[in-house]
């Protein structure tokens, strides 16, 4: 090829690149409800970093943490309207979207370890569940495995009967509602951003969350006791507005799929240590008494709560529940 042609081609390439770079950026609003110094908060910032670096600025990510843009229920509505493009709610928040299957993960004591949970969330059962979101205009991108849930309250809650009459804040999950009602408690759905004040003013007496949320929201300041119960699994579902995500230019979409993959790997690599660091910090404050349930106490609570597995077979799907039992080897009849 003549030198002249090379020069013309390189100039054209340069113009295309600068034109490509000068096009107005694709803006991704990423809203979430937790503090930045949590696994989800850090992962949202990591997602932003990778997306902006790898697309050379063609994508701009605006992260809105701690419910500053939208609270719990609002954020899911905003995503469906396209007012935000990416969220990472807990699977407990998918009930109002009408995707009841996600509440399978709320079944108490479904998993005994991260390994069991990862088999499901990072395996075929999880992938199938993500695909089910598309009918709601939502692109299910990934599961972010966070931690196990613990209970904070203003009195020790060791035995099932201790829960009688306790007003406990819960996420908007029918399964979680049922598991605490089965103990005689009085579950109240509240947005995550309202929990601290509700505990402080006595609107509710208790709540359940992983250590990282208990720590970063300072629930230990307004809760006398923290029961290490590991009674439920806490994970996030990274989702996007499906019309937006499917409408990304193919080259950008390929980059963003890699950003999702690498951010998920990052999240899953920091979550367990963050959870233990949060427990250590809560202990260091000395502001709440930490109660680790004995094996007998945990088994009694497990037996009392696990009844809801059967109760939700028709709503969640018996086959879906059985498929998770097959992956983990869990058998509620052998408790
Ligand atoms: C909650 O209790 O609402 C939190 O677990 C939410 C979250 O995103 O961690």
Q: How would you describe this structure in keywords?
A:
7-stranded mixed β-sheet; two-stranded parallel ribbon; alpha/beta; 19% strand; binds (2S)-2-hydroxybutanedioic acid; 335 residues; D-Maltodextrin-Binding Protein, domain 2
Describe this structure in words.
The protein has 335 residues and is an alpha/beta fold. It has a single domain (26-334), classed as Bacterial extracellular solute-binding protein, family 7 (D-Maltodextrin-Binding Protein, domain 2, 3-Layer(aba) Sandwich). It is 46% helix and 19% strand. The chain has helices at residues 3-22, 39-54, 72-81, 114-121, 124-131, 174-181, 195-201, 211-216, 242-246, 250-285, 295-305, 307-311, 313-316, 318-328; strands at residues 26-31, 59-64, 86-87, 138-153, 167-170, 186-189, 206-209, 225-241, 289-292. The strands form two sheets. Strands 3, 4, 5, 6, 7, 8 and 9 form a seven-stranded mixed β-sheet that branches. Helix 2 (39-54) packs antiparallel against helix 10. The structure holds (2S)-2-hydroxybutanedioic acid. (2S)-2-hydroxybutanedioic acid binds at residues 33-34, 90, 171, 192, 209, 213. (2S)-2-hydroxybutanedioic acid is lined by residues 33-34, 90, 171, 192, 209, 213.
Question: Secondary-structure map with pairings?
Answer:
Blueprint: H1 3-22, E1 26-31, H2 39-54, E2 59-64, H3 72-81, E3 86-87, H4 114-121, H5 124-131, E4 138-153, E5 167-170, H6 174-181, E6 186-189, H7 195-201, E7 206-209, H8 211-216, E8 225-241, H9 242-246, H10 250-285, E9 289-292, H11 295-305, H12 307-311, H13 313-316, H14 318-328
Parallel strand pairs: 1-2, 5-6, 5-7, 8-9
Antiparallel strand pairs: 3-8, 4-7, 4-8
The structure holds (2S)-2-hydroxybutanedioic acid.
(2S)-2-hydroxybutanedioic acid binds next to loops.
């Amino acid at each position: 090829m003549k030198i002249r042609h090379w020069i013309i081609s390189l100039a054209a390439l340069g113009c295309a690149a600068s034109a490509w770079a000068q096009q107005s950026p694709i803006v991704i609003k990423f809203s979430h409800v937790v503090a930045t110094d949590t696994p989800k908060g850090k992962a949202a910032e990591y997602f932003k970093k990778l997306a902006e670096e790898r697309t050379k600025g063609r994508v701009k990510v605006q992260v809105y943490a701690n419910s500053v843009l939208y609270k719990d229920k609002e954020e899911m509505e905003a995503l469906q309207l396209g007012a935000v493009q990416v969220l990472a709610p807990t699977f407990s928040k998918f009930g109002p979207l009408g995707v009841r299957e996600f509440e399978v993960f709320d079944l108490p004591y479904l998993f005994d370890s991260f390994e069991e949970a990862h088999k499901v969330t990072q395996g075929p059962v999880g992938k199938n569940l993500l695909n089910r979101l598309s009918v709601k205009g939502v692109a299910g991108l990934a599961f972010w495995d966070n931690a196990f849930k613990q209970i904070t309250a203003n009195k020790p809650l060791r035995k099932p009967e201790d829960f009688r009459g306790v007003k406990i804040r819960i996420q908007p999950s029918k399964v979680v509602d049922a598991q605490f009602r089965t103990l005689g408690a009085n579950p109240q759905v509240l947005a995550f951003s309202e929990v601290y004040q509700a505990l402080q003013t006595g609107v509710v007496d208790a709540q359940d969350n992983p250590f990282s949320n208990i720590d970063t929201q300072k629930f230990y300041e307004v809760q006398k006791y923290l029961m290490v119960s590991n009674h439920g699994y806490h994970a996030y579902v990274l989702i996007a507005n499906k019309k937006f995500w499917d409408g990304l230019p193919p080259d950008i979409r390929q980059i963003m799929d890699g950003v999702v993959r690498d951010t998920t790997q990052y999240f899953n690599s920091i979550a367990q240590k963050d959870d233990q660091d949060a427990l250590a910090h809560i202990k260091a404050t000395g502001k709440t008494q930490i109660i680790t349930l004995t094996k007998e106490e945990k088994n009694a609570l497990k037996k009392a709560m696990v009844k809801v597995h059967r109760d939700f077979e028709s709503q969640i799907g018996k086959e879906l529940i059985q498929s998770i039992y097959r992956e983990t080897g869990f058998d509620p009849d052998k408790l």
